């Protein structure tokens, strides 16, 4: 099957700094990728849809200026958490669709201290 | 808005027991339904999906699910679980594209 890779798998950062998370489709091209967030013991919540070559589409309640998404190529989408705060600590997962199936990255555990 | 609910949050079974995990969806129109599994430390992996056609869907690793439109349900079943089935299971729906609405997940522990 298709492979989606996320980097880093985990990151710890200081409050006020920015963190970039990469999502790559390794063996296929993805014009659309999705970013999810998962709080402990809760479901994955869709944050935004990343579109190659155009602006991302954000879900209601997600701050687009805080969660910057860039999809500059058909194999790479990045999520930058700007001016991170402890409440941004969470598990972030990306996905990309290929052949009628969504494939997920392994997720990134972000801890803001 | 479309939503998915999973009834069982934690399930503990002995090996060889039968499994059924409940999933209900709220959207009444065309809906695509999925079950994903996440083994400890691994990616989310698709178990099975339903788009249309035969409401009884066979997936990988011996799992199956039945789409019952009248009950808005898509329950996951396996006749005999193994220790290796210990994982987190997520039901999800999508009405267009591949932006998924996930349930809260069910943590399954299979004891030897």
Write a brief caption for the model:
The complex is a heterodimer of chains A (113) and B (112). Chain A is mainly β and 113 residues long.
Polypeptide structure, described:
Chain A has 113 residues and is mainly β. Chain A has strands spanning 4-7, 10-13, 19-25, 32-38, 44-51, 57-58, 67-73, 76-81, 90-98, 101-104, 108-112. Chain A contains no helices and 11 strands. In chain A, strand 7 (67-73) and strand 8 (76-81) form a beta hairpin. In chain B, a hairpin with a 6-residue loop joins strand 10 (87-94) and strand 11. In chain B, the strands form 3 sheets. In chain B, strands 2, 5, 6, 10, 11 and 12 form a 6-stranded mixed β-sheet that branches. Chain B is globular and about 40 Å long. In chain B, 0% of the residues lie in helices and 52% in strands. Classes of the chains: A mainly beta (113), B mainly beta (112). At the A-B interface, strand 4, strand 5, strand 9 and strand 10 of A face strand 6 and strand 11 of B.
Query: Structural class, from secondary structure content of chain A?
Result: mainly beta
Mean residue pLDDT of chain A: 92
Please report the total strand number of chain A as a whole number: 11
Based on Cα principal axes, name the global outline of chain A. Answer: globular
Q: What's the overall geometry of chain B?
A: globular
Radius of gyration of chain A: 13 Å
Structure classification of chain B: mainly beta
Task: Present the secondary structure layout.
The complex is a heterodimer of chains A (113) and B (112).
Chain A: E1 4-7, E2 10-13, E3 19-25, E4 32-38, E5 44-51, E6 57-58, E7 67-73, E8 76-81, E9 90-98, E10 101-104, E11 108-112
Parallel strand pairs in A: 2-11
Antiparallel strand pairs in A: 1-3, 3-8, 4-5, 4-9, 5-6, 7-8, 9-10, 9-11
Chain B: E1 4-6, E2 10-14, E3 19-21, E4 23-25, E5 32-38, E6 44-50, E7 56-58, E8 64-68, E9 73-78, E10 87-94, E11 101-102, E12 106-111
Parallel strand pairs in B: 2-12
Antiparallel strand pairs in B: 1-4, 3-9, 5-6, 5-10, 7-8, 8-9, 10-11, 10-12
């Amino acid at each position: 099957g298709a492979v989606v890779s996320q980097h880093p798998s985990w990151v710890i950062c200081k409050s006020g700094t920015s963190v970039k998370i990469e999502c790559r489709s390794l063996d296929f091209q993805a014009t659309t990728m999705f970013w999810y967030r998962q709080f402990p013991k809760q479901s994955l919540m869709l944050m935004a849809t990343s579109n190659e070559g155009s602006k991302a589409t954000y879900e209601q309640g997600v701050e687009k200026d805080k969660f910057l998404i860039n999809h500059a190529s058909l194999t790479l989408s990045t999520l930058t958490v700007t001016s991170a705060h402890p409440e941004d600590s969470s598990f972030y997962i990306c996905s990309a669709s290929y052949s009628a199936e969504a494939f997920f990255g392994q997720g990134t555990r972000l801890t803001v201290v | 808005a479309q939503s998915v609910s999973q009834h069982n949050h934690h399930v503990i079974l002995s090996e060889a027991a039968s499994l059924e995990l409940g999933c209900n969806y709220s959207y009444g129109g065309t809906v695509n339904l999925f079950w994903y599994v996440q083994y400890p430390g691994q990616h989310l992996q698709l178990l099975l999906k339903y788009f249309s056609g035969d409401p009884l869907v066979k997936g990988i690793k011996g799992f199956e699910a039945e789409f019952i439109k009248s009950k808005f349900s898509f329950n996951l079943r396996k006749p005999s679980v193994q220790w290796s089935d210990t994982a987190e299971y997520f039901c999800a729906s999508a009405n267009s594209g591949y932006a998924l609405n996930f349930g809260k997940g069910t943590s399954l522990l299979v004891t030897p």
